[in-house]
Structures are given as C-alpha cells and as structure tokens.
# Entry
Amino acid sequence: MQELSIKVNIADRQYPLKIQANDEENVRKAAWKVNERLKEYVEKYAVADRQDALAMIALEFATEYFSEQEKGAGPDPAAKNLMQAIEDQLDQALRSTQG
# Structure
C-alpha cells in the first residue's frame, strides 16, 4: 500500500501524519469530527482548556467504539482505522502540550 504524508488541523494546530493512502478520507473526516465536537464542548460547556475538551472527546469516541464492540458486530476496518488515527492525533497533542 502507498504511504501518504498529510497534515491535519485539530484544535488550531497542524499535525503531520503518515498514513495509508486509502485511509486519507477517514483521517480527514476524523479530524473534522473532532473539531466539530470541540466547538460543541466550548460553546455548550464553556470549556476553557482545550486539552480537557480533547480528553473528553477521546473518552466519548472510545465509549462509542467499545459499545459497538459489545454489540458483537466487532469493529469494521474503517472504524478501527479511524479510532487509531484519532488516538494517534490525541497522543501527539498531549505530547506537544507536556513539553
């Protein structure tokens, strides 16, 4: 498979990623979804610290993911790739805020 270098913007920060070319659409959708959810958290809950909001978003997505797994359907490959991309992006965000 072809590897692709892209940049995604999450919480007004650019994150360079190397992904499989066929995952690009899902990764970009994931970044968009995280940003949309971040807007909701900031507007509805007046969250001032974006790191707190990103942690809550990660928890929300992970909860949805595990709920789907419990239903017995098992994760489809696209959902699994999406969750991995989100996890990778959040790891990068947390590392950049810590040091």
Remarks:
- DSSP finds three helices and two strands in the chain.
- The chain has one domain: 3-98.
